[in-house]
Amino acid sequence: MDVHEYQAKELLASFGVPVPKGAVAFSPDQAVYAATELGGWNWAVKAQIHAGARGKAGGIKLCKTYHEVRDAAANLLGKRLVTIQTGPEGKPVQRVYIEVAEPFDRELYLGYVLDRKAERIRVIASQRGGMEIEEIARTEPEAILQVLVEPAVGLQAFQARELAFQLGLNIKQAQSAVSTIMNAYRAFRDCDATMLEINPLVVAQGDRVLALDAKMSFDDNALFRRHNVADMHDPSQQDPREAQAAEHNLNYIGLDGEIGCIVNGAGLAMATMDMIKHAGGTPANFLDVGGGASPERIATALKLVLSDPKVSAVLVNIFAGINRCDWVAKGVVQACNTVDVKVPLVVRLAGTNVEEGRKILAESGLKLITADTLAEAAEKAVAAYRSVAGKAA
């Protein structure tokens, strides 16, 4: 789960990480009021979306008057901001963050990520702040500093000091940076985060080190014990289909293809998508209905897949272990009777009571395309899609 910049900064500030003064606003009038309350003579008006590279896309405006603050907020609120991280559809801007724009001398990079291969938290830092970390790694790999944290003892102060001095900071700046690095690590660890990026981390007047921007992502499986983080969830930043799927405990990710997939089990879903690609098609989604492929879940999944206007064929691939194929077949029949299916539907069943399941499908009277193997199902789904596409042409 991702959060907005202002929410990440609230969390970081609660752990002692210095951040500039700021306030969130949902309207131009609120933005002006926030600027007057914050004080100062320069403000940054920042669009709040779950994506980076906002500055390059015009999502961050520097303002010197209240009129400029109002105009900047009015121009950002209600629009869809397209950045290199959002895709062409962009993300809606429903709130802006008004922040006091302090002058600073240097931009640094500081990040924390859960390295699953090393089974450690990896701390990444660089003197090249304000740039994408991928760009730094590509152009100046030697500029990236890394520390692996031993889980038994956590990040140690000497490791933070080494990073601070490797970043080229003087004694006073290093003292502030060590505190920031350690406190940001505590925030990452104690909030069950999977990623924390402070870019840029700036050296401001008085040798202070501030988190000028912040992005955080969290482990969905730990949200049950992090209610303060779970409450920060913003469904408007998700694909509406993914938000709907989450309400029904379905694992759904929208893709750009034309063949919808309904599968039980994440591994089988991945294999199904690979087989569709191998057969010459393109999957429209990843959808794992889980172990309980009940008629209701199949119907909900089918509605979800068909809500994508690009879908020209649907492949249902169920391997019944705990479930039974006859139950799943009844679910498919019930789903087809409750959902208006206007595209070819390919069904492949395997596992417990497979013969009974195939019999139910055959006697249902529905125009279903059945297959015995995954390869056959994928080939039939691709052929059905091409048939539909040919007729449309």
Give me the secondary-structure topology.
Blueprint: H1 5-14, E1 22-25, H2 28-38, E2 43-47, E3 60-63, H3 66-76, E4 80-81, E5 91-92, E6 96-100, E7 104-115, E8 120-126, H4 133-139, E9 144-149, H5 157-166, H6 171-190, E10 193-204, E11 208-211, E12 215-218, H7 227-230, H8 240-247, E13 251-254, E14 259-263, H9 266-278, E15 285-288, H10 295-306, E16 313-320, H11 325-338, E17 345-351, H12 354-362, E18 368-371, H13 374-392
Parallel strand pairs: 14-16, 16-17, 17-18
Antiparallel strand pairs: 1-6, 2-3, 2-6, 4-5, 7-8, 7-10, 8-9, 10-11, 10-12, 13-15
Task: Describe the protein.
The chain has 393 residues and is an alpha+beta fold. The chain is built from 13 helices and 18 strands. It has helices at 5-14, 28-38, 66-76, 133-139, 157-166, 171-190, 227-230, 240-247, 266-278, 295-306, 325-338, 354-362, 374-392; strands at 22-25, 43-47, 60-63, 80-81, 91-92, 96-100, 104-115, 120-126, 144-149, 193-204, 208-211, 215-218, 251-254, 259-263, 285-288, 313-320, 345-351, 368-371. The strands form five sheets. Strands 7, 8, 9, 10, 11 and 12 form a six-stranded antiparallel beta sheet that branches. Helix 12 links the parallel strand 17 and strand 18. Helix 9 packs across helix 13. The protein is elongated, with a radius of gyration of 26 Å. The mean pLDDT is 89.
